[in-house]
Write a structure and sequence with these properties.
191 residues; mainly alpha; single chain
Length: 191
């Protein structure tokens, strides 16, 4: 039963989310939390891992959630659920695109999706930032936590390097190394 629930939930997310994995993240987060599949901290940790592993972001997260909930069958069902809608939509769009690519209606639809996708990505960024920077909730005590400052410093350095157009692989490697070093230096527990 859980495999069917995983498939159907991720199928709906895959079918109604435009803009890729980051746009899916708020919906995946909402479903995972509301169904009690994973705690937010575990999902946040896997978002970080999924950024540094090969493959599409949404597929990595879906596979992970499915594996945690139901092992290999869950991973397969969740992955199929999130991928199948895109596969079918791309097949249909590819067949019709040449005929409709100059349509003002289609251009208007695509232009209106851009701000919505940016909003979904921003919502995911804010939600995950709260979970990373203030896991116990926002309060003045978080400013006394060295882990808060370490996370904020790592973020600032990586943002600076990203704006300087450094290679993403370099940023991922540096982020991982800085996070591991900060964890050891601050004697943080392993999640």
């Amino acid at each position: 039963m859980i495999c069917l629930e995983l498939f159907w939930t991720l199928f709906k997310i895959g079918a109604f989310t435009f803009g890729g994995g980051y746009a899916m993240l708020p919906l995946i987060q909402s479903e995972v939390e509301s169904r009690g599949w994973l705690p937010l901290t575990q999902l946040v940790d896997f978002v970080a891992v999924s950024e540094s592993t090969p493959g599409p972001f949404a597929v990595n997260i879906a596979t992970y959630v499915g594996a945690v909930r139901a092992g290999l069958p869950g991973a397969l069902c969740a992955t199929l659920g999130v991928v199948l809608p895109s596969f079918v939509i791309i097949l249909l769009v590819a067949r019709a695109y040449d005929r409709f690519k100059t349509s003002p209606l289609l251009r208007g639809m695509m232009a209106s999706l851009r701000p919505a996708v940016i909003g979904l990505i921003a919502a995911a960024l804010l939600s995950l930032s709260r979970a990373v920077l203030s896991p116990g909730g926002a309060s003045f005590s978080m400013f006394a936590d060295p882990a808060f400052w370490a996370s904020l410093c790592i973020f600032a350095v990586m943002l600076y390097l990203a704006l300087r157009r450094r290679h993403p692989i370099l940023l991922i490697g540096l982020s991982a190394a800085a996070g591991i070093a900060a964890g050891f230096a601050l004697n943080l527990p392993v999640p």
